[in-house]
Known about the structure:
Structural class: alpha+beta
Strand order of the largest sheet: 1-2-3-5-4
Helix content: 25-40%
Number of strands: 5
Oligomer: single chain
Radius of gyration: 16 Å
Shape: globular
Amino acid sequence: xxxxxxxxxxxxxxxxxxxxxxxxxxxxxxxxxxxxxxxxxxxxxxxxxxxxxxxxxxxxxxxxxxxxxxxxxxxxxxxxxxxxxxxxxxxxxxxxxxxxxxxxxxxxxxxxxxxxxxxxxxxxxxxxxxxxxxxxxxxxxxxxxxxxxxxx
Length: 152
């Protein structure tokens, strides 16, 4: 799992407008049902073609998390099962370059993954903000590579 996007990344998000897609099933109604049980949704962090990530409060553990809600209309039953298996495996992984996964749940036909909320932006944004030295870029990319290697 990659970390959630920071506020500065909102301009770089996918242009998919789920609300205007006539055949789509909204993530928010299911998220609000789940939120009433355990998670309180505070704000949207990012949106892509497959999921929406929110800043949320885990009421059971009293901490802020990134809550990723996968759109049910974008994955098959087999893909949904694979995502749950992957999230369970990621929950066992501890690495400084990989966000921690705290919880995975299937709510109706939707997958919700609660993970560590990281303060910061995306790698894309970090590279775009200003000039970086070759050494700084190499250090950052090596860290990302170590995280990917640990996850795989």
